[in-house]
Amino acid sequence: MKIKTDANYNSPRGRSLEDDLRLLIDDERFYDIALKCSDGVTIYGCKAILATRSDVFSAYIFNESVEKNNNLSFNDINSTAMKVILEFLYTSKFDSLNVDNIIESYFASILFDLIDLQEHIIEFTIKLSLMNENEDVGKKLLSECVKKFSLEADNKMSRVLIYWVAKNKLEKNEIDSLSLEGLRYLLEKTFDTQIPFATPEFNIWEYSLIKAIRKVIQNAH
Questions:
Q1: Nearest by Cα to 76 from 150, 184, 2
Q2: Cα 175 to Cα 178: distance, rounded to the nearest angstrom
Q3: Which residue from 194, 129, 180, 173 is spatially nearest to 151, judged by alpha carbons?
Q4: Where does this protein have coiled-coil stretches (predicted)?
Q5: C-beta separation of 129 from 60 below 8 A
Q6: Which residues pair with 71 in a beta bridge?
Q7: pLDDT at 125
């Protein structure tokens, strides 16, 4: 009898629990629940693993209506973040985490009350801020953080990003990724605090004015 093996799977089954469980992620042969994400993409999972590894998933899954139709919908979690969540729940790893899904994944990790994953994402972001010489990455992430959470949010991620952006001078002639909402959040959270702020007050005024003008021009087009 010829045994069917998975393409792109180099290690024989049974040698690594992590590798074997990774194969279950989003594989239609093994799933018994569908997770519809905010971007319209459906990710498939295994109830037993999700419910065992997450109290939040357990509460969702053993809801009477879900038990009947085996479908869950998440209006505020996209598929890239959901894949990070499933990867962590299945393998305790987060190899698919990257600069483009940090904020969405952090938000999802809070929703599912995954404390360890939250800490891993924070550590990943701190290392990124220390190693990455591109200051705009921090501005991009801070803007995404404010958009995803709110101007009132105060969490470990927002504090890491505020420190990252504040330590670098804001240049008025530079077109960057810091949104007006992100700038407002930065100024509110650093006002009358001990957080080091590299930009002098007058330069902040210039930077803010020019950014607002650019926004008006952009909206006009």
A1: 150
A2: 9
A3: 180
A4: none
A5: no
A6: 34
A7: 94
Which of 137, 145, 202 minimizes the C-alpha distance to 172? Answer: 202
Q: Of 17, 15, 35, which Cα lies nearest the Cα of 26?
A: 35
What does 105-165 look like in DSSP terms, one character per residue?
HHHHHHHTT-HHHHHHHHHHHHHHHHH---HHHHHHHHHHHHHHS-TT---HHHHHHHHHH
- Answer whether 46's CB lies under 8 Å from 37's CB: no
DSSP 156-200: HHHHHHHHHHHTSPPPTT---S--HHHHHHHHHHHTTSSS---S-
Whole-angstrom Cα distance, residue 120 to residue 35? 24
First to last CA, the chain: 65
Rg (CA), the chain: 21
| Residue 44 in tokens | 């498939």
Q: Is the Cβ–Cβ distance between 101 and 81 less than 8 Å? A: yes
45 beta partners: 33
The kind and range of the H/E element at 90 are helix 79-91
Q: Split the chain (221 residues) into runs of 10 and give each run's mean pLDDT.
A: 44 67 73 93 93 94 77 95 96 93 98 97 91 86 97 95 95 92 96 92 95 88 72
DSSP one-letter string for 37-87 = -TTS-EEEE-HHHHHHH-HHHHHHHTSHHHHHH-EEE-TT--HHHHHHHHH
Model pLDDT, residue 2: 35
Alpha-carbon distances, residue 93 vs 53, 110, 124, 156 (angstroms): 13, 17, 12, 21
Q: Which residue has the tokens 């501005």?
A: 139
